[in-house]
Amino acid sequence: MINSDEADEFLEQELDSAPKVLTSSLYHYTSSDAAILGILANRSIRMSPFQGTNDLWESRPLWPNLEGELRHNEIPADGYYSIWEDIDRYIRGYSKVACFTQDWELPDSLMHSDALRGWAHLSLWAHYGAGHTGVCLRFDRDRLVAAFEAAQENATHQFYGPVRYRRAEFGVGPHGISLEQAEEFGIDAVALRYAHVHRDRVFFRKHADWASESEFRLVRTDLSTEPHYFDISKALTGVVLGDAFPNDRIPALLTMLAGFDDVEVLHIGFHNRILDLYPLESPAEPESLPGPMLAATSIIQPRRSGDLTQRLRSLEEIEQIADIDREAVIQAAEPVLKIWREELMGRSELISAWPGVVFNTYPGLTAIPPEGRRNRPGVPGEFIAYEAGLMIVGENQPQHTFTWVMALAIQIMPNGAGRLHTCITTEEWRSEGNNQQELYRDYLEPEAHELLAASRQILASLIAAVPAARQKYDELRGKTTEL
Questions:
Q1: What angle do CA 212, 213, 219 make, to 5 degrees?
Q2: Whole-angstrom distance, CA of residue 184 vs CA of residue 177
Q3: Same domain, yes or no, for 340 and 245?
Q4: Quick check: is 3 in a domain?
Q5: In angstroms, rounded to a whole number, what is the distance separating the alpha carbons of residues 102 and 21?
Q6: Is the residue at 286 inside a domain?
Q7: Which of 46, 125, 151, 329 could crosslink 129 through cysteines, CB 3.0-4.6 Å?
Q8: How many other CB atoms sit within 10 Å of the CB of residue 478?
Q9: What integer is the mean pLDDT of 146-175?
Q10: Is residue 312 part of a domain?
Q11: 331/248 same-domain check
Q12: Is this prediction's pTM over 0.70?
């Protein structure tokens, strides 16, 4: 049986390798009061002072290199610090920013296809969404940018775009501000020009620690230290309520939304470390906090007799025995798995030379039918000491619409005898439900001394079955097999 760490690793690899598509939506996390009494009531969003951001790369002064020398002015008594302060005032002090989270779609076939959605960032719910009691406002990106650009009155410059994240940066970079130009045009002019020319470095770079925010931002610089507001009436498309959003705030929220067109209201539900999204009409009830432990009758009655202490001791003893059995036979399985891995990885004609398909190898028990897998220790039924397997997964390119799986697995009984499983399957991704086909399956039950020979035999049969199965897979995806 695959353990939880292997399952988690598979999920991570699946998410890392899956294609992701940037949607047209942007999300903005905020508290319920800020949303209801501020953004929705005024139909506008606030652009806050740039120097109030969280990243030290932005909240602390940026002091560009000062090039040249002053020709018509004395060097200030404090050296150049007062000049840098003037520059910083025009670059950061007069700049405002509105921050949003980008929205990424993953294939529906993934186990956690919502993992990168703009509304699914737990750290943002905790930090900006008032500890999950707030909301996440959804905007159409193009309409939001259009509204932002329409409100350029008195702006020196306005920019927008995604933030890039870096683990390290070469300080302020090789470019500086000319003191001669400052004398000629004024510190304000050269500072604002510097910010315009180097806007990507100044306004759209953050430390990699903030990369999970997947931020898209709007930036405005004018000659005011006051916040700036612009209308979002036509850009708002949805409101997502946090998992702990107070029910008594819902009427006020709906009242403020009455003047907006086609705004969807959704509710976050959290269960077993998974976030889901529901329409407000049928919200998932937030999980209640655990209450005190009561000496009540359990819903599930134990089959074994004895009090809790006796049953717990029995379970511990059975699992300890199972661990001993597992360690005793695991060495018999490792050579088999090594043979399979090395042989398959060395056969380029099986995987690497397959046009239009990308392959990855994962641990897994796919080859073992569910009803034949190892029971947990102590559960009635046949006891299998150890099981392990691997699968080679091929994904059609450029879209993962057809999947090929070639799987092998081994089971070892307490007496050392083995069970070997192989199979080849395909899966076609469909909106109405995926279509799975089993193209090949084989099974052997060797004795302990026959294990290595049997593993080579079943592998050879699997390899021999690949050409015919591959032809069927290529037919499924509308390709011609090139052998």
A1: 145
A2: 12
A3: no
A4: no
A5: 11
A6: no
A7: 125
A8: 8
A9: 87
A10: no
A11: no
A12: no
Percent over 70 (pLDDT), the chain: 92
Q: Please write the tens of the pLDDT for every residue from 174-213.
A: 578 888 888 888 888 888 888 888 899 889 999 899 999 9
Do 99 and 241 fall into the same domain?
A: yes
* pLDDT confidence tier of residue 289, bands split at 50, 70 and 90: very low
Residues 367 and 261 in one domain: no
- Spatial distance between the Cα atoms of 409 and 13, rounded to a whole number of angstroms: 20
Q: Residues 73, 212: one domain? A: yes
pLDDT of residue 293: 45
**What is the C-alpha to C-alpha distance for residues 89 and 221, in angstroms, rounded to an integer?**
11
Distance CA 332, CA 385 (A): 11
**Summary mean pLDDT of the chain:** 87
Based on the domain organization, do 143 and 236 belong to the same domain? yes
In a domain, 294, yes or no: no
CA distances from 222 to 157, 184, 199, 348 (A): 7, 21, 15, 61
Looking at the structure, do residues 465 and 324 belong to the same domain, yes or no?
Answer: yes
> Which among 230, 254, 279 is the end of a domain?
279
Q: Do the Cβ atoms of 130 and 283 come closer than 8 Å?
A: no
Task: Provide the residue count of the chain.
Answer: 483
CB 285 within 8 A of CB 270: no
3-state secondary structure 227-276: CEEEECCCCEEEEEECCCCCHHHHHHHHHHHCCCCCCEEEEEEEECCEEE
pLDDT, residue 353, reads: 67
Q: What is the pLDDT of residue 282?
A: 46
- Sequence-ordered list of residues with C-beta below 8 angstroms from that of 409, at least 6 positions apart, any chain: 364, 365, 366, 367, 368, 387, 388, 389, 390, 420, 421, 422
Give the domain-ending residue among 279, 312, 342: 279
Token readout for 387 is 């099981």
Task: Quick: pLDDT tens for 398-424.
Answer: 776 889 899 999 999 999 999 999 999
Domain shared by 275 and 340, yes or no: no
- Residue-wise pLDDT for 114-149, tens only, equals 999 999 999 999 999 999 999 999 999 999 999 999
Task: Domain count for the chain, please give it.
Answer: 2
Helices (H), 32-76: 32-33, 41-42, 56-59
> Is 102 in contact with 118 (CB distance < 8 Å)?
yes
Q: Are 206 and 163 contacting, i.e. CB atoms less than 8 angstroms apart?
A: yes
Domain that holds residue 420: 320-477
